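Appendix C reproduces, verbatim, an entry submitted by the partner laboratory led by Prof. M.T., so that reviewers can inspect both the input and the predicted structure.
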Amino acid sequence: MEDKKITVRAVERALDILLCFVHSNEMSLTDIAQQTSLNKSTVYRLLASLEGKGFLMRDPGTEKYRLGFRIWELSANLTQAADPAMILLPELEKLRDSLGETISLYVRDGMERIRIQAVESNQSIRRVAPIGARMSLAVGASSKVLMSYADPHSQEAILNDPSWPDWVDKRLYKKQLEEIKEKGYATSFEEREPGAAAVAVPILNRSGHLIAALSVSGPSSRLTLDKMDKFLPEILDAASRMGKMVK
């Protein structure tokens, strides 16, 4: 009976930590300890468990914690607008109706990107975009946007991870990231799959922090470079509006 009480108490404390992020998007260990009235050693152990399971993530630069992408995966089953993916859905639909191509939102999770929201083109030939799909950060317009806006420490950790594909030239890839950060967008043609093309831009919040990558994708025969150039002002405008809608 005593072991069960200890287990339940640990679960309650972990949930209390997650609830700290209802009113703040970033918190330090000290902040969390103060808000939960728990000692730092207890908070540290619980944070490590929550981070390990993907419910929280820690910024290596500031040592502050924020909600992890497991929260996004859970929220995919919500039926109301209670998370950014749902909040931004009307804007995605509006952009899809205007451009006629599939629109997606991606976030980075470790060595992968996750599609957290998507609205497919109404055209007969279109990109199928299942929500929750995980893809490599090595290729694709959205991957490079997410990587270009990641902090240098995260970039190096990902590029030097043993799982990084040997066939991707790191030097060339880093140069591409610099160009993308300078331009503010990325394009890809048949990098991940034959016959597919995409253009992606960052969604930045009011503080300039990356929220997600906004992608427009379609058949490469239709979504040409000229078409991307034509679409780009509207895509950037949509990303700007979306950035003001989320914290």
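The chain has two domains: 2-67, 79-243. Additional entries are available on request from the coordinating office.
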